[in-house]
Specification:
460 residues; Alpha-Beta Plaits; five-stranded mixed sheet; 10 helices; Rhodanese-like domain-containing protein 8, chloroplastic; Rhodanese_C
Length: 460
């Protein structure tokens, strides 16, 4: 876990509905802006209003009114005010996100494998579109596709999604959206060419990611739920053969499993996905490899990760190793929680941004579940303090205060206090020791603390 901290991943999406786009044209086509208006039948109407450029006060008043989401029937007519033309252009499109207020902050995640002939030129196009928009995050592009995780005001964040979907290569991307309660979830924007969309030892450029037949078969959230329920609700005796022929593989980092996982999933024996070696039969990892000595033609391998991209990547490796029956959770855990709620899920979901941990209701607030025996795992390694071994109540990681360690770990507040935010006694004597952070804040750049610590030493 040391030196290995959050790589890209994806969060929640939204159900698909039909969008009708209505363009109202004024005399001068300047200062356009878009309003999403949703009907109770899930039909969304996007109104693009073109107003006179010099009528600033009127524009401000109208923009303020149109920030609200108005519900009306599919046959209702919109009546424009003064100064609005009568030209109407109706166009059917697919709307894959809910109408959101202009000032709402969101985190958007998506990835897509598709051949991009000139990746550098593609990066330049994206940078040009995002110029002047308030978006921060990680957006990587190469010849195999795109992988994006970013935050921003919903107006800017979703405008990028719609612009991207205007390109037929990306028209069917699965976009996942979750709330960012405290503004940006990322410190800055990194939009660039990157040789590997996912970090894996040896790289991924040689993998047949653009061939869907080489990737695992995607299961919808409902299909995934039925698979897990068939195993976990059947008695141990009658389910012996079924469990032998089905393996639930958590293709994430061990610290992600520590705060949440599906019932029946083993803890990954790696602290970085880049070193994952399931099914590769290396002598040093055979003992911890759940795919060792399994029947490659008869065993069903069910794989899941946060947003789906790591499973898609790793499934091509397993396919090349001869595994026949490979299945992935489409859209990952975040997509599952949004559609199915926390059924068969234990704990929270680790996310790769400043929020670090999200409870299931963050994806599906209306899901109400009764406490059950799975909420506290029978496996005594779940949700334990890394230092003292006691169970922790807050499923959120900390970084060790020793900058040169930076271990990401679960810790009870008593141990945080006793070891001054460090993961062990040795780290408490480190030369580059950051202060103890209250609660679960994130550490900033070292120079922030270096200057403060230096000044403190001078005064003492």
């Amino acid at each position: 876990m040391r030196g290995c901290f959050p790589a890209p991943a994806v969060t929640s999406g939204a159900a698909s509905s039909t969008m009708t786009q209505i363009v109202l044209g004024g005399r001068r086509k300047k200062d356009p802006f878009e309003l999403s208006v949703c009907s109770s039948t899930s039909t969304c109407f996007a109104l693009l209003i073109h107003k006179e450029h010099n009528q600033q006060s009127q524009i401000q008043r109208q923009r303020q009114r149109r920030r609200e989401c108005v519900w009306f029937s599919e046959r209702s007519k919109w009546k424009g005010g003064r100064g609005v033309g009568v030209a109407l252009q109706v166009q059917q499109q697919q709307c894959t996100y809910e109408s959101r207020e202009e000032k709402e902050w969101v985190v958007v995640n998506f990835y897509h494998f598709v051949f991009i002939k000139d990746a550098e030129a593609e990066v330049a196009k994206h940078l040009s579109f995002l110029e002047g928009r308030d978006i921060r995050g990680r957006i990587y592009v190469n010849q195999q596709g795109i992988n994006a995780q970013y935050s921003g005001p919903s107006r800017d964040a979703l405008a990028y999604v719609e612009w991207l979907r205007g390109d037929e290569r990306f028209s069917d991307i699965l976009v996942q959206i979750s709330a960012a309660q405290n503004g940006h979830a990322f410190p800055k924007l990194k939009l660039r060419y990157k040789p590997s969309l996912v970090q894996l030892e040896g790289g991924i450029s040689h993998l047949p990611l653009l061939d869907p037949s080489m990737r695992a078969t995607p299961l919808t959230p409902s299909e995934w739920r039925k698979r897990l329920e068939a195993v976990n609700t059947t008695s141990e005796a009658s389910n012996k053969d079924l469990k032998t022929n089905q393996i639930l593989l958590d293709v994430r980092n061990g610290y992600e499993w520590d705060i949440g996982h599906f019932n029946g999933a083993q803890r990954p024996d790696v602290d970085c996905f880049r070193s994952t070696s399931f099914g590769l039969s290396q002598p040093e990892v055979i003992a911890a490899d759940p795919l060792e000595n399994v029947d490659k033609e008869k065993t069903d391998i069910l794989m899941y990760c946060t947003g789906g991209i790591r499973c898609d990547v790793y499934s091509t490796i397993l396919r090349q190793q001869g595994f026949q029956n490979l299945y992935t959770l489409k859209g990952g855990v975040s997509h599952y929680l949004e559609n199915e709620g926390p059924v068969q899920w234990v704990g929270n979901l680790f996310v790769f941004d400043s929020r670090l941990s999200l409870p299931p209701p963050a994806y599906k607030p209306e899901a109400i579940t009764k406490p059950n025996r799975h909420e506290v795992s029978e496996n005594n390694t779940f949700a334990q303090c890394y230092i003292c071994g006691l169970q922790v109540n807050d499923l959120r990681h900390r970084n060790c205060a020793n900058l040169d360690c930076n271990l990401l770990y679960l810790c009870c507040m008593n141990c945080v206090k006793n070891l001054r935010g460090c993961c062990c006694l040795e780290c408490t004597g480190a030369p580059r020791l950051r202060p103890v952070l209250p609660g679960f804040q994130r550490y900033k750049k070292w120079h922030t603390y270096r200057d403060t610590i230096s000044q403190s030493k001078l005064t003492t």
